[in-house]
Amino acid sequence: MDNRRNDPNLNRALAEREQQAQDGQRRSRVDNAVIVRGPSQTESSPTPPTEPAPIPQPATSSSGRQCWICFATDEADDILAWIQPCNCRGTTKWVHHTCLQIWIDEKLKEDRERTVISCPQCRTEYLIYYPNSNIIVRALDKMDLLIYKACPFIIGCYVVGAVYWTALSYGAVTFLHVGDEEAKEIMGQVHPLLMLVTLPLVPGATVVLGMLKWEESLLEVLRTISYYVPLTRIFLPNRLINESGASTERQISDGMSCTRVFAGAILLPVAAKICGDALFSETFESPLLRSMYGGLLFIGVKGLFTMYHKQQTYKRLSQRRILNFNEENRIFIAGAESHGNATQ
């Protein structure tokens, strides 16, 4: 036995076996520690392969309910009450009771006389229950609805009355301005009811006169006559012939400006009074006749100048040409503009 203990080969084999047993125990402890602690706490341990993370999906409830007004589901809000107020199917048949109440209130604000509220998808009429109210509340509701209906009518009457009295005042002031003492005598002799009817027509008449574009119609007639009667082209406005041999057409009317029409209506009586007193003071003793003929003369002269300006503008636009872009034409345009500025 002692010889075996002293045998070096045997001792070396036993030591190697003990060392292998200790190494196996350490590896077993390390493996167990890796399993318990996980890969996040062991830097040297190999990480096992993992599956790809799933794509996140929107939250949906098990019942598939989703409010078509606020788009919330059971998982997003599990406090509000759900109802099925119509014949819609699928997830759109569900709606929060509070959301639908707010939506109905908005619809009733748009039309207070509306009594039927329907689903915007399936057009099913909602079954809405209102508790019974006492007679005082019903009377107040009817009174409130009556006032709501009468308000537009009241505002309309107020606006019409304001326009009428403004027109009446303007007509009276204008009539006294152009008629002087004769106008006062006429207003004192005529029945007041007749004055209340006729005087508001004065501003309307001046506005209508300002809206009439008689000079444009007359200019078109004169162009037509001069086109078919060559001898009249010497003294009448005529149509120009373009390069294709056809008559050049240009827009005659410049449109209608409300501010210009009303400004002309206001200034017309003043211009009529000035022209009448300056040109017909010795011809007519009546201030009304002088103002009437002065106004007609003013309108006629103004129309002639308007026709002349439109005809010259028509000629200028008919002779307009688009030039090629080159240095020679640029110099020509620059010279023409400088010459035009110099003549002005």
In angstroms, what separates the terminal alpha carbons? Answer: 142 Å
Number of strands: 2
Q: Please write the string of helix (H) and strand (E) elements.
A: HHEEHHHHHHHH
Please report the number of helical segments: 10
Overall residue-averaged pLDDT value: 77
**What structural class do helix, strand and pairing data support?**
mainly alpha
Q: Please outline the major beta sheet.
A: 2 strands, antiparallel
Backbone shape:
flat
- Detail the poorly predicted runs: 1-6, 28-62
Strand content: under 5%
Percent of residues in helices comes to: 55-70%
Radius of gyration: 49 Å
Query: In order across it, which strands form the biggest sheet?
Result: 1-2
Task: Describe the model.
The chain has 344 residues and is an all-alpha fold. The chain has 10 helices and 2 strands. The longest helix is centred in the middle third of the chain and has 55 residues, at 135-189. The model is unreliable at 1-6 and 28-62 (pLDDT under 50). It is found in: Membrane. Residues 1-62 are annotated as: Disordered.
Secondary structure blueprint with pairings:
Elements: H1 2-6, H2 8-37, E1 82-83, E2 95-96, H3 97-110, H4 135-189, H5 192-198, H6 201-211, H7 214-228, H8 258-279, H9 287-318, H10 327-343
Antiparallel strand pairs: 1-2
Helix pairs in contact: 4-5, 4-6, 6-8, 7-9, 8-9
Brief overview:
It is a multi-pass membrane protein. The chain is mostly helical.
Question: Which characteristics define this entry?
Answer:
zinc, 344 residues, mainly alpha, E3 ubiquitin-protein ligase MARCHF5, Herpes Virus-1, two-stranded antiparallel sheet
